[in-house]
Design goal:
Blueprint: H1 2-21, E1 23-25, E2 30-35, E3 41-49, E4 54-62, E5 73-79, E6 84-90, E7 98-99, E8 102-112, E9 117-123, E10 129-136, E11 143-154, E12 172-178, H2 183-204
Antiparallel strand pairs: 1-12, 2-10, 3-9, 3-11, 4-8, 4-12, 5-6, 5-9, 7-8
Helix pairs in contact: 1-2
């Protein structure tokens, strides 16, 4: 009986921890031609969440050489109807930690629903940005696909990149994690394990 309970507790731990372990950049890497700009414009691209809800945890901007940004960049995440869901300012320099090719900052967590497409974008002014043909790296496993890789809007400040697609503009990025089960779900899981333990005990009598 003791061994059985130990196994059940271990199983419960795995079930709980598994909900927190899958997290990462929506797009982990890409190879593209870098260009510089002195004009103000937004770039963006779309991604579709996979079969489970995810939680947005960070937003970031591409640091082409990995040696710090020349300027700060406001980055946002939108629903496809143009509703802004989250935004953050990635500071100049190396203050924001580098994750892959992007400097990331924490944001207030937002739930992104399974099967829904979102647009991530950022201000591309003061640093090199990607344009032209590109080879995209792997996606986070929680993401089904990416598309419309060259959305943009010119001379509008921080705003929804509604035009395009044109070229490949993957300067902004997002960091997501699989949404953890609600406390009630975890309670039901543990209750079920307890019931199995009781049934096991009765079977041994």
């Amino acid at each position: 009986m003791k061994v059985f309970l130990v196994k059940m507790i271990a199983a419960a731990g795995l079930l709980c921890s598994a909900s927190f372990t899958q997290a990462g950049l929506v797009l982990t890497s890409f190879v593209s031609t870098a260009q510089s700009t002195t004009t103000t414009f937004m770039t963006g691209w779309d991604f579709t969440v996979g079969s489970s809800d995810v939680t947005l945890k960070r937003l970031g901007y591409w640091d082409e050489s990995g040696d710090g940004l020349n300027a700060s960049h406001q980055v946002g995440l939108w629903a496809l109807d143009g509703t802004l869901l989250s935004s953050a300012i990635v500071p100049a320099g190396t203050v924001a930690p580098l994750d892959g090719q992007w400097r990331m900052v924490d944001v207030t967590e937002v739930t992104l629903s399974a099967g829904i497409t979102y647009r991530v974008g950022g201000e591309a002014t003061g640093d090199e940005y990607s344009y032209g043909s590109s080879s995209q790296g792997p996606l986070d496993p929680a993401i089904a696909s990416i598309q419309n890789l060259g959305m943009f809007v010119n001379d509008a400040g921080f705003s929804f990149p509604a035009n395009g697609p044109s070229g490949v503009r993957l300067n902004a990025n997002a960091f997501v994690a699989l949404k953890a089960p609600a406390p009630g779900v975890l309670a039901l899981m543990l209750s079920g394990l307890g019931g199995l333990a009781v049934a096991k005990k009765k079977g041994e009598m």
